[in-house]
Amino acid sequence: MRVFFAPYVEANPYQIEIAKELKKHNIFIHASEFGTKNFFSTKNIDEADIIHFHWFDPFILTTSFFKTLFKVLYFLYNLKKLKKKNIKFVWTVHNLHNHENLHLKLELFFMKKLIPMIDAFSVHNTFSKRKLMEKYKVNQKKVYVIPHGNYVNSYNDYNKVTTRVLKEKLAIDANKTTFTILGHIRPYKGVLDVINIFNKLALTNTQLLICGKVKYAGDKEVIEEAVKNNKDIKFVPKYIEDSKIRNYLEITDVMIYSYKDILTSGALLLGMSFNKVCIASKVGSLPEYLDNDFLFSNLSELEDKIKWLSNCSKEDLIAVGKSNFERIEKETWQASSELTKNMYQSILK
User: Fold this and answer.
1) What is the pLDDT of residues 6-25, one digit of tens each?
2) Distance in angstroms (rounded) separating the CA atoms of residues 151 and 273
3) Which domain holds residue 250?
C-alpha cells in the first residue's frame, strides 16, 4: 500500500512514530513536497493509493488574502484532478482552523469544498469527532477515532550529563518548583498571560522556564521585555532539538498548557508521557485527559493552580505525574497504527 503524508515533517515525532509502526504492516509512507504547486509535482503522487493529509496550512495559507485565494483555488482544482485517478483522501483532524486565525472565511470556503472529497477522517478523541461533525456535517461513518500515541519510548536518545549542565546554565534551583512551557512559542499559547501571573505573584519558591522557537520576532521582543526584571523566569528562545527535549523535561516539575484555543495537543501527551504534572486550559479536548483539579477556565484559576502546586511537596508532584503517565500508557503507536491500517483498508475495499 502506497500512502503519502501531506505534509510530512521530518522533525515531527507524531508522524515519525506512526510511519514507523505502519511500515510493520507493509504500509510505506512517502513524503509529499511542500508548497502549493510543489505538492502536485511530488514524485509518483498520482500513483498513490491514499493521500493522508495532516495540515492544509502549508499548501494554502499566506498573510496575503489574494495569494491565499489563488492557492485555495489552485489546490482545489488540482485535487479534483487527482481524485479522478481514484486516489483516496484521508484527513487527520489536528485542528479545525489555523492557529493564527488567518483568512477564516476563505479557509472555511476551502474546507467546505474539500470535505466531500475526503474518504475518511481520523480524530484523536470523541470531542474532536463531535466538533468535526458539528462544523462540517460529516457523516459519522467516515470518522475514525484513533487515539494519539504516547511518547514513552521517544526522546530516549539523550545525554544525561546535559541535564546537569543545563541546570547550571539556566541557574535552576532544585529546591524550587519549576513550571515549564515547552515548544514553539505562538500567540494562541498564552505565554504572556503566564509571565504576567508569575510577575504578579513573585513567589520565592517557584521558577518559570519558557523554551522554544518564537514564531514572530515581535513576540520575542515583548517576552524579553516582560521577563527582564524577574530572575526566576528563564527564557530560551530557540528551537529545542529532539536530543535536548528530555533534558528540559527532567528539570521540570509542572508543565503549563495555557492555550487560548486548541482542538488536540500532542504537547500535553508529551508531558504526561514523562510523568509530569500538567495544568491546562479547559479548552478543546484537553478535559478528556486531565482531572478538573488540573484544568483552568480563566487566568484567575490558573493563578490559583500555580499557587497551589508551588506549595506541594516534590513527592506529591511525582505522584501526580505518575498518575498522568498511567492514564496514557496504553495509548501506544502500535495500537494507533493498527487502527490506521484498518481505516485505510476500509476505504480501499
Assistant:
1) 999 887 889 999 999 999 99
2) 5
3) 160-328
